[in-house]
Amino acid sequence: MGTIHRSGVFKKTNDKARLVIATILGIVIGFFIGVSFPSVSLYKIHLPSNLRSSFDASRANDQDFIVRSPERTADNLPKIYVPTNPRGAELLPPGIVVPESDLYLRRLWGEPSEDLKKKPKYLVTFTVGFDQRSNIDKCVKKFSEDFQILLFHYDGRTTEWDQFEWSKNAIHVSVKKQTKWWYAKRFLHPDVVSAYEYIFIWDEDLGVEHFNAERYIELVKKHGLEISQPGLEPNNGLTWQMTKRRGDREVHKFTEEKPGWCSDPHLPPCAAFVEIMAPVFSREAWRCVWYMIQNDLVHGWGLDFALRRCVEPAHEKIGVVDSQWIIHQVIPSLGSQGKSEDGKPPWEGVRTRCKKEWSMFQNRLANADKAYQLGKE
Fold first, then answer.
1. Which PANTHER family match (predicted)?
2. CA distance 53 to 43
């Protein structure tokens, strides 16, 4: 009996050993088969069509939510520091850095590469109130699809402009009671408008019956003007002789002013000078001018005398286009956006600040020049 019992125990032990060995061999063989055939396409397996479509749907849904793990973890990412990248982007690989932008309108659907049927080459901005809508409508119609229209609304009224078909493709920026130079400093950074060859920064009270935008661009390029403006009708809103239209030429760059006004014939207001009501800047010139605009001096008075600092030689690259001229209608609409104080009308307070800003800008520029010269010594 004892022998039979021991034999049974031995037999059971052998059975367990064989089972363990078989399991191990199965795992090993399975491993090698997996290595030899790393992927098996389920499409090569003839599943019933209803099962296969169900699997496809499930697989697609899963892929929507699965985040693929990178080949290396974040801790193992290569250390990047590229000092030639734009400031703040030094830790990014250069291939992903997009340093400039544009104002092109894009869709919310479809392929990004198919968004734009045509890319405007020039940017035209008007600072507007709704009361001047008829005049702005006339102005905008002077510009073709090559010109992107951007309206800065100082009265907060934007949706009413949709009565004009062109308004639906324009860009509207609405901040109440601000000037065009306030908008320009905040919304026309050179890296944002770099896609445009020329930038028009115009007032709302300009008559354009004698103005052709395409011809204007042709003349600006022909005469090498980096900063320009259309000539002004001599009998309307004329302040400086430099901006007065000449009827016998395409462009002029010099003028004669009152005795003693020009210490140098190559300096403003006899040369290297345009007014701030309707300036047009090349992309390169605007990059410099933008940096010169002060954050707190919103009217821009005095800026026109300093524009010459942004191009060289200024007396050759700043000029007035005579054959494409405009009329300054002298509508003090922005003055009504001021505030009446001490019994004075709103426009008077606005005009007082304009003059004060001119003096402040001149002082800042003079002080900056002195500080630079002292730093060199």
1. OS06G0731900 PROTEIN, STORAGE PROTEIN-RELATED
2. 11
Q: Which of 268-272, 331-335, 370-374 has the lowest mean pLDDT?
A: 331-335
pLDDT digits (tens, 9 = 90+) for 174-222: 999 999 999 999 999 999 999 999 999 999 999 999 999 999 999 999 9
Those residues whose C-beta lies under 8 Å from the C-beta of residue 333, and which sit 6 or more positions away, are: 129, 131, 132, 204, 205
- The overall average pLDDT reported for the chain is 85
Label residue 121 by pLDDT band (50, 70, 90).
very high
Cα 186 from Cα 196, distance rounded (Å): 17
User: Strand 171-174 to strand 318-328: parallel, antiparallel, or no bridges (unpaired)?
Assistant: unpaired
Would you give the DSSP letter of residue 345? Answer: -
pLDDT tens, position by position, 317-327: 999 999 999 99
Grade residue 38 by pLDDT with cuts at 50, 70 and 90: very low
With a CB cutoff of 8 Å and minimum separation 6, the contacts of 307 are: 227, 272, 273, 274, 279, 285, 289, 314, 318
Domain ranges in the chain are: 122-331
* CATH no., domain 122-331: 3.90.550.10
Separation between Cα atoms, residue 270 and residue 255, nearest integer Å: 5
Question: Which residue, among 93, 74, 98, 71, has the nearest Cα to 82 in the 3D structure?
Answer: 93
b/e per residue 325-334 (b: at least 16 CB within 10 A): bbbbbebebb
Cβ atoms of 196 and 121 closer than 8 Å: yes
Positive or negative torsion for Cα 207, 253, 287, 191: positive
**Residue showing tokens 């600006």:** 220
